[in-house]
Amino acid sequence: MAAASVRVLAVWTDRELPPHALSAAERTRVDAFGAGERRRRWLRARRAQRVVTGLLGLPGDVARRFPHPRLSLTHTGGGSVAAGVVGPVPPSLTGIGVDLEPPRLPDPRTARFFLDDRERAWLAGQPPPRRAAEHVRLWTLKEALFKADPANADATLRDYRVRDAAARHGTAGRPHRPGLTFGYVSGRLRGGHLSIALSFDGARTPVGRTTDMPARTIAFEQVADRIAGVLSVPAGELTPQTPLRSLTMDSFVLVEVIVDLQEEFDAVFSQAELKEIDTLGELVELLRSAR
Q1: In this protein, which residues make up the domain named Carrier (predicted)?
Q2: Domain spanning 2-200 has what CATH number?
Q3: For all residues of the chain together, what is the average pLDDT?
Q4: Which of 53, 76, 228, 270 has minimal Cβ neighbours within 10 Å of its Cβ?
């Protein structure tokens, strides 16, 4: 990928980083994941990162926090992708984002979660066989834009506007931050949809959210029953302490659940706010505060 004379290297792997290659800090972190799929995903992503940093001549643990101006990670299914900026980083470059999703039949309602009216209109105009693929491609694009934005703390995926929804490579922006511009490319990788985005000269003033009306009470049992219906799990097994990520390892399915809850309880909150919560109890509190 080249944008504003910037080249990007992307590496896919389905292999995990072996334990002996982990630093002490990495071993501590991975041990906290236990022996489940989350641990395996983290080790695959770490291996992809090590390959990219090695090829770029960077320390293996150079990226400890994201967004990062030179590296981005994504994982889905049985593989992970790391993307890194090749060569010197231009002063105007502020971030890179990558996202990969497998082919799927998405819930059409999720489009309103990450596409604006113009983008949804374009998507609705696509023939049905193509619409599902474009839906997933645009999701990966918005995720990549979000990851590339160094000031994404209060952003939603809808905040990022692509100039041409049909374009496989082009530019995007964030209207409330006129100094922030993006370049991106989308394509296919191992049957899935891959997008990489770069951000340039981002303005970093914080954006707050106001609440016009007090929220009505939302009972935990209401949320649990709704989640149980969507995911076909026993509602009685869900408690306020249930980890949100234990419901599904698929980020897209989780978004479908969140969209369903937002519609059911008339609540709106940002992806960044969602990433700050860990349990169903915290999700209920977020739903209450976001109405």
Answers
A1: 214-291
A2: 3.90.470.20
A3: 82
A4: 228
pLDDT tens per residue across span 15-65: 888 877 888 888 888 888 777 888 888 888 888 888 888 888 877 666 566
pLDDT digits (tens, 9 = 90+) for 190-222: 888 999 999 998 443 232 332 333 334 677 888
Residue 72 tokens read as 């981005």
Residue 245, by phi and psi: left (phi above 0), alpha (psi -120 to 50) or beta? alpha
**What's the confidence (pLDDT) of residue 209?**
32
Distances, alpha carbon 37 to alpha carbons 33, 40, 76, 238, in Å: 9, 5, 11, 20
Domain extents in the chain:
2-200, 220-289
- On whether the 220-289 domain is CATH 3.20.20.70, my answer is no
SS3 258: helix
Q: Give, for 273, the enclosing helix (H) or strand (E).
A: helix 271-275
The helix/strand/coil state of 193 is strand
Which residue has 């792997």 as its token pair?
13
Q: How far apart are CA 277 and CA 248, in angstroms?
A: 15
pLDDT digits (tens, 9 = 90+) for 45-54: 888 888 888 8
- Joined tokens for residue 208: 């707050």
Structure tokens at 85: 């900026």
The secondary structure of 33-67 as a DSSP string is TTTSHHHHHHHHHHHHHHHHHHHHT--TTS-SSSS
